[in-house]
Amino acid sequence: MNLWGKSKSTLLNSRQKMNRGMRVVWIKKGNALAQKGKYQEAIVCYDAVIAEDPENPMAWSFKAGVLLNLEQVEKSRDAYRKFVKYAKPEHAKYVTQAKDLIHDLDGILKKARSSRLRKA
């Protein structure tokens, strides 16, 4: 059991036909969970929004941050790329920051791959 005392499968089924207002609620709930360190539950919230609205830049951005906290660098980078792709003009400041972070994450991944190749 997790978020609101429901199982993950129940949560994913309960998000059907989510309107814009509910997407905002799910993002806020995800953010609250992330602040408490409940990263997996936060991802469930963001994924619920993304399933209904795959081009929602904020869900992608917050999911990327949580994935980075979980040290899932490649998934985080990919989620930041989705944020950049779907960002609105009012997100321009954050797009610049996300692009810088993507560049840094690419460097980390490149070094990790290089290190693995040397060890093999």
Give the SSE layout.
Layout: H1 8-14, H2 20-35, H3 39-52, H4 57-69, H5 73-86, H6 92-119
Helix pairs in contact: 2-3, 2-4, 3-4, 4-5, 5-6
Low-confidence stretches: 1-5
Number of helices: 6
CATH superfamily: Tetratricopeptide repeat domain
Overall shape: globular
Q: Which assembly state applies to the chains in this document?
A: single chain
Q: What value does the average pLDDT take?
A: 88
- The secondary-structure element order is HHHHHH
Taking the alpha carbons of the first and last residues, their distance comes to 42 Å
Q: Mind telling me the C-alpha Rg?
A: 16 Å
The CATH first-level class comes to: Mainly Alpha
Number of domains: 1
Largest sheet, strands/sense/barrel: none
Strand content: under 5%
What's the β-strand tally? 0
What share of residues is helical?
over 70%
